[in-house]
Amino acid sequence: MAGYGLLKIDEGELKSNRRTSRLASLDVFRGISILLMMIVDYLGSIFPIIAHSPWNGLRLADFVMPFFLFIAGVSLALVYKKVSDRVDATWKAVLKAAKLFFLGVFLQGGYFHGINSLAYGVDIERIRWLGILQRISIGYIVAALCEIWLSSRPIREIGFFKPYYWHWVLAFSLCAIYTGLLHGLYVPDWQFEISNSTSSVLPNNGSYVYLVSCSVRGDLGPACNSAGMIDRYVLGIDHLYTKPVYRNLKECNMTNGQVSENSPSWCHAPYDPEGLISSLTAAVTCIIGLQFGHVLAHVKDHKGRVECWSFFSFSLLLLGSSLAFVGIPVNKSLYTISYMLITSALAGITFSVLYLVVDVYGYRWVSLPLEWMGRHSLSIFVLLTSNLIIIAIQGFYWSKPENNIIHQIVASFVHR
């Protein structure tokens, strides 16, 4: 028990924490997530083992999204610790979520054509409506409204579970709706058309209609899951992500970044990993992060906070692992419940470790670059992970556009 003496917070620390509006470890965690995103985006093609898992499974890149959602939830608990005007707070939360959503549409909707093209612009009939920032905005607004309207704040609170009882009701309800839709909906056979504008294997002015045979219920494969069906019906197949990660499965026979014509028909189909159904469980990750933030608000000593977070994290990890063991796959593209629980647990463990290292033991100087990245995470996302800096750099070339430093790097390390 002597070791726990270092975890106790004294009166001076409490006063210091009251003066500090930001939690250093949370900024560091956000900075780590941004750095992780940059690593897997730019090095994933060189080291596929760190890129997204093609379907079932968990790789380094698959932690980025749940980490951001978890961090958003923790932040909300601090922002809305005291709400004097719920209507005003709701309006501000909706406005912020809307800004984030439409920024995501602008950055990832197809307006920018990537590092291989200096052109820009998007056909409205093919714009991608959902993406990374859009998913974060959905999780943000769900958790924010949950915190603003579903938190009971009696004068004297006993513990921190009872005041947030309805948060858990909402989380379980979202999981129940997700499970019912994913496993209960019937998926009929479906077809889609690929034109020469979206495929390099078809002749000019050509198009081809692919038929995908399903006629199943509860299938969790890439071809016949109900999540993809709902996105096709609601959003439209032309508004989905055209380069789904499942193309890296062996069945799709990917060569030089293209799916071969003798691959199964579904390998050519668009699919959005940030789709509608999976946004339900993604929002639950945000709600879980919210509960970790409540520990900060209600538990005043380091020891108690770390104990609560550790118990919560390992409970989630055990539950998620148990679901995976009984057959619910760990799948990022579907954002399955097992995936949500395991990644939320690991986010909680990571946050706890960072809290100990940065805020308790005071090794903040070691993580200052990451803390800076965390404070400017959105700007870094816009400039780097959306390729704006890359596009700007490759705008300087000699003789012809393909003679630029970015093209040389890609040719040397990615396509060699």
TrEMBL record:
Keyword Acyltransferase: no
TM segment ranges: 28-51, 63-80, 100-120, 132-152, 164-186, 276-297, 309-330, 336-358, 378-398
InterPro entries given in the database record: HGSNAT_cat
Domain named Heparan-alpha-glucosaminide N-acetyltransferase catalytic: residues: 22-145
Signal peptide feature range: none
A Pfam match: HGSNAT_cat
Alphabetic keyword roster: Membrane, Transmembrane, Transmembrane helix
The UniProt record lists the keyword Transmembrane: yes
Name this polypeptide is given: Heparan-alpha-glucosaminide N-acetyltransferase catalytic domain-containing protein
UniProt source species: Jatropha curcas (Barbados nut)
